[in-house]
Amino acid sequence: MEISKPLDVFNTTENNKRPENKSLPIIGKGTSLFSATQEFKQPAISTKAIRILDSNILLVFMLIVTFYALFSDDIRISQFSKSQDDGFFALSCCALSFFSIEMIMSFIFKGEYRWSFYYWLDLIATLSIIPDIDWAWNPIVGINSSSTSSSNVNQIQNAGKSSRAGARAARVIRIVRLVRLMRIAKLYKHAKRAVKTDSVDQIADDDTVYIPKESRVGRKLSDIITKRVIILVMVVLILIPLFDLDFFKTQKYSWDFGLQVVDDYDEVFPNENTVKVYYRDYYKNSSRPLVYIAYLDGSEWLSESIDINSLREIEKYYSHTNNSIAVYDIRIDSKLEAQLNACKTIFVCIVLVAAAIFFTNDANNFAIIPIEKMINKVKAIANNPLKIAEEKVIDIYDVIEEASKSYWQKLCKKCKQSSKKHIEYETKVLENTFVKIGVLLALGFGEAGASIISSNIKTGGDVDPLIKGKKIAAVFGFCDIRNFTDATEELQEGVMLFVNELARIVHSTVDHYSGAANKNIGDAFLIVWRFDDNEIQEFSDPIIFNQESKQVKYLGDLALMSFLKIMVKINKDPVVLKYRSNTKLIKRMPGYQVKFGFGLHLGWAIEGAIGSNFKIDASYLSHHVNMSSNLEGLTKNYGIPILLTDRVYDILSFLGKKYCRHVDTVSLKGGKDVYKLFTSDVDFSGIMPGKFKDNSKERTKNKRRALKFRLDQGVLESSEVFSGSKEINSIKELFSEEFFEAYDNALRKYLDGRWKDALFLFKDVLKYRENDGPSNSIIAYMEESNFKAPKDWKGIRPLY
C-alpha cells in the first residue's frame, strides 16, 4: 500500500509530459528559481507504470480497498459468524496483495518514493493487515483452535495464555492499522486540490485569470506539516494504551474467582459434584454463558446449546486454575468492541484530516499563500513585464476563497471587519512592494526594455542590462513641443509641470490607441506602435507583412488617429488652455498657443538597451527611428503640424488615406531613400474648450484592450474609428474638395518639372487657404531656382 506525498510530490504524470526540476535549486550565481531545471528521460515501461499508478481508476480502486482494510475486521466480528470468516480472510489476503504490489511498483518506478518517509509508513500499514488474517496471525502468536477440544488441561491452559497474549499484541498492531488512514488523508487532500484546480480553471475560463502554480516552498512546508501530524497522531494512538493497567496485567473477573472456589471445594470434597453442577447452571442463562469445562482428571463438560468450535478465539474467555479450565462465550463483548473500534477509526480519521487542515491553515494563510502570491507576481513580471503596469492583477487565491465561502461566512467576515481594525502584515507589504517595483520597472524601461526585465528576473547571478538586441517592425512616431526653449526660460521651475501635463495627454491618448511611449527627451516624445513578430514576413524596406496579418490593417490608422486626437485635446483641455493666458508666455510670444509637431514613419529597428553598466536606456536604434524625428523637423519647413511617409500611408484604411494629402516627394542620403510625404490637414477653429477629464489608468487600459480586441476579431474596422469620431470630423470639415483638387493639380505640375505652371496653380490654392504651409514651402523652394526645374529633376526633392 502506498501513501503518496499529499501535495503531489510523487505525482510524476505531468512530469512525463513536461520535465521539471526534481529538487529545490540552490539559488546563487548563475542559477534562478525559473531556470534551475533538470531534463531527464524515463524508459517507456517506467512511464507507463507511473501513469498506471497515478491513474484515477487505480486511485479509486485502492481507496475502496483501503476502506475495506480499515473496517473489514470490525464488520466481520460484529455482523458475521465464524463460519463466514474464511471469505473475509481471503479478501484481506487480496487487499494485502494489492497494497504490496502497489508499494513494490512505487518503490521500483518512483525514485522519490524509495526509502522515503511514506515508504516506511506504507510498509507498516501493509504489515498491520496481517492481524486481520487469522490464517497467518494465529500461528504467529501460537493459538491452536483445536486445543479446546482436547482433554489435556495443560494444552487448553496454554491456549488461553496464547489467546490473551495474542489479544494484547493484536490490540497494539490494530492501532498501527490506523496508519492506513493516512491514505484517506492524502486522497482527501488530493481531491481538495483537484476541486480547487477545477474551480480555478472555471474562473480562469470566465475571467481570464492567470492560474498560479504551487510553489516549492508551499509544497515542502505542507509536506512537512502533514508528516508531523501523521507522526503525532500515531504516537498518541500507540502510547496511550501503554498507560492502561490491562496492558501489563490481566484483570480477574467473577469467572476466575468462581472457578477457583469450585476447585477448592473439589479438593475438600472430591466426590461431591453439587457445586460443579451449580456452577454450570449459574451461567446457563447468562449473557456470557459457560461453554466448556475441563478437569485435570480428564473429565470435561460441553455446552449443548453452544458449539465451542463455532466461536472465534477473540470471542472466548479462558478462566483456569491449577486443576481446571473453563471457556466462556463473550461474543457480546467482542461485538461491542468491534463496533467501538469502527467508531474509533472514524473518529481518528476525522481528527487526522482536521488536524492536517488546521495545522496547515495558519501556515497557508500567513506564509505559504503570501509567498506563492509573491512568486506569482515575480513570475508575472518575468513573463510579461508590461502587463503588471497595464492592469490590476486579479488574485486567484482571493477569488477562489471568496467564491467558496458561504453566506454566513461572508456575513461573519463583514461583522469582524466592522469590529476590528484592518491589520496589514509584513507579507502583504512585501507583496505590494513587488507590484510597485514591477510597475516602476515597466514605467522606467517601457516596451523596449521588457526583454531586459524578463531575462534578468528569470536568470540568476549578476544583473546584466546589456543583453543582445532584437529586430522588430513598428510605426515610429515623434512629437515635439514647439517653442519649448522660450517656454522653459519663462516658466522656469514650472516647466516640469508644463511638460508633464502635456505628457499626460500624449501618453494616455497613444496608449488608448495601442501605442507605447518610449523616450521623453525634454520637449520631445518617441512613440512606438509595434507589430507582433508573427505579423512580419521580411524585414525589408518597406516591410513585407504576412497575408494573414491583422495589425497591418489597423495599426497605421491608430497611429494617425493618436496624433490627431492629441492635437484636438491640446486645443480643448482646460489644463493646457490656461497657458494661453500666461502673462509671461504672452509677453514673450504674443498669441501663444501650445503646439506640437508630429512625424510618422514605418520601418524596422533594433530593440534593446543602450548605455553601460552605469546607466542604460531601453530604446530603438535604426535610421527609421531617426526618420520619424526628421519628419517632425520637416513639419516646420512645410508649416504643418504632422508629416507621414508613404510607408505609413500605404497601410492606412480607405478613410485614413482620404484624410491625408500628398505634400511632396523627397530623397535622403544622396537619393538612396525616396519617400512620398503626406500630411493630415487640421483646423481647430471649430473646437470648443472642454471639461477636465482625468481618466484613470485602469479605465484607459480597459478601453485599449476593448478596442484592440474588436479590431483583431474583425468586429470593428479601423476606418470606423475615424468616422465615429466627431472631433476628427470637425477638424476636417473646413477643408473643401476644391482645395484638395487644386493642390493635387499644382503638385502634379511641380513634380513633372513644369514649375511656372505650378506657381500659378499654387497661388490658386492659396486663394482657398492663404496660409497653406506646403504650398508656401514649395513656392519658396521653386523660387530658389527662379521657378525653373533642374535639368536632372525627376520629381524628387533632395534633402541633405
Question: How would the blueprint of this fold be written?
Answer:
Blueprint (H helix, E strand, L loop, with lengths): L12 H5 L26 H10 L2 H24 L5 H25 L7 H11 L6 H8 L11 H24 L4 H27 L8 H24 L5 H4 L5 H15 L5 H9 L7 E6 L4 E3 L13 E5 L3 E6 L1 H53 L3 H4 L5 H9 L2 H13 L6 H20 L4 H9 L11 E12 L2 H8 L3 H18 L3 E6 L2 E7 L5 E3 L5 E2 L9 H16 L3 H4 L5 H6 L7 E16 L4 E6 L1 H16 L3 E4 H4 L4 H5 L2 E8 L4 E7 L17 H16 L5 H6 L2 H7 L4 H16 L2 H14 L4 H11 L13 E2 L2
Give a structural overview.
- By secondary structure, this protein is α+β, with helices and mostly antiparallel strands.
- Among the domains are: 13-144 and 162-241, no CATH class; 471-732, Nucleotide cyclase, GGDEF domain (Alpha-Beta Plaits); 736-800.
- It contains 32 helices and 15 strands.
- The strands form three sheets. Strands 5, 6, 7, 10, 11, 12, 13, 14 and 15 form a nine-stranded mixed sheet that branches. Strands 2-1-4-3 form a four-stranded antiparallel sheet, with helices on both faces.
- Strand 3 (316-320) and strand 4 form a beta hairpin.
- Helix 3 runs antiparallel to helix 13 (331-383) and helix 8 runs parallel beside helix 13.
- The longest helix has 53 residues, at 331-383.
- The protein is rod-shaped, with a radius of gyration of 45 Å.
- The two termini are 84 Å apart.
- Mean pLDDT is 77; it is low at 1-41, 147-151, 194-212, 391-408 and 418-422.
- It comes from Stentor coeruleus.
- Pfam families: Guanylate_cyc, Ion_trans.
- Residues 475-632 form the Guanylate cyclase domain.
- GO terms for molecular function: monoatomic ion channel activity.
- Keywords: Membrane, Transmembrane, Transmembrane helix.
